[in-house]
Design a protein that fits this description.
- This protein has about 120 residues and is mainly α.
- Helix 1 packs across helix 5 and helix 4 runs antiparallel to helix 5.
- The longest helix is centred in the first third of the chain and has 24 residues.
- The radius of gyration is 15 Å and the shape is globular.
- It starts with a helix and ends with a helix.
- The model has no long low-confidence stretch (mean pLDDT about 95).
């Protein structure tokens, strides 16, 4: 089970580092112009950067506390936080009619929930 949790933690961390990092470095206008981020039209620049920061911090929280043994309770808390991020993201995508994004939201939510529960039980 520990190996499965680490694999999922690593995959989620990579996804959230990439997605969050992109939101932090790319201008909102460029994201909107790509046609894949219509939700960003209704969000401020600061809002997009805040979402990116939350995703990057969540990615780090998935791995670093458990890996270092420093405050390992932060790992399942980070995973639970990413569950909330996906619930909110799914809500925004539904609001904007972006239903193609929903399966990704559901998969990321379930994987984050798996990590949250698995690591809370292992404390």
């Amino acid at each position: 089970m520990n190996i499965a949790l680490w694999v999922v933690q690593g995959l989620l961390a990579a996804v959230y580092l990439a997605a969050g990092g992109m939101k932090l470095v790319r201008p909102r206008e460029q994201m909107v112009a790509s046609g894949r981020f219509d939700w960003a039209k209704d969000t401020t620049d600061a809002g997009v950067k805040a979402i990116g920061a939350v995703e990057v911090l969540g990615a780090l929280g998935l791995v670093l506390p458990w890996l270092t043994g420093i405050a390992p309770v932060l790992t399942p808390i980070a995973a639970a936080g990413l569950v909330v991020v996906q619930v909110l993201a799914a809500r925004v995508h539904v609001k904007h009619g972006e239903t193609k994004s929903l399966p990704v939201n559901v998969v990321l939510l379930l994987l984050a929930a798996f990590v949250a529960v698995g690591r809370f039980l292992d404390l």
